[in-house]
């Protein structure tokens, strides 16, 4: 299952088969498909990630988020929307701050390259049998 963060992108977990010299590895790894207004990405390079069509994409659950921080869902939704607008503005004006997702990773821009770097703990938490292969791929 994937999660769509409107105006920013989609997080998902994909299964991949990797052929090693002696073994076929099957790993689960996180991916992030950017969905930011392309006009604010002029001169920025970012990896193209395609989430397979068989993965169900769900919208961000503002009600669930509100339960984790005791704020009303409408306020959580407004905070998320305003944060994404601010981040888009900062990208347009080349401020390029790091955008941290708790327990997931960091969306950052260095040397005009925008990329999502997942925490090792996030990748390890996906339960791949061959965790080192998943870490190397991600």
TrEMBL record:
Q: Which domain of life is it from?
A: Eukaryota
Q: Which residues form the CCDC81 HU domain?
A: 57-126
Q: Name one Pfam family in it.
A: HU-CCDC81_euk_2
Q: Name one GO cellular component term.
A: microtubule organizing center
Q: Which residues form the signal peptide?
A: none
Coiled-coil intervals: none
Q: What is this protein called?
A: CCD81 protein
Give the source species: Erpornis zantholeuca
Encoding gene, per UniProt annotation:
Ccdc81_1
């Amino acid at each position: 299952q994937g999660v769509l963060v409107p105006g920013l992108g989609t997080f998902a977990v994909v299964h991949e088969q990797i052929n090693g010299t002696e073994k076929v590895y099957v790993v689960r790894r996180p991916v992030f498909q950017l969905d930011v207004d392309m006009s604010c990405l002029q001169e920025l390079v970012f990896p193209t990630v395609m989430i397979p069509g068989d993965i169900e994409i769900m919208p961000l659950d503002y009600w669930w988020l509100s339960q984790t921080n005791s704020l009303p869902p409408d306020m959580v939704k407004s905070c998320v929307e305003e944060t994404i607008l601010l981040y888009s503005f900062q990208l347009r004006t080349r401020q390029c701050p790091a955008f941290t997702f708790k327990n997931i990773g960091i969306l950052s821009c260095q040397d005009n390259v925008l990329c999502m770097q997942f925490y090792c703990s996030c990748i390890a938490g996906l339960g791949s049998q061959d965790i080192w292969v998943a870490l190397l791929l991600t």
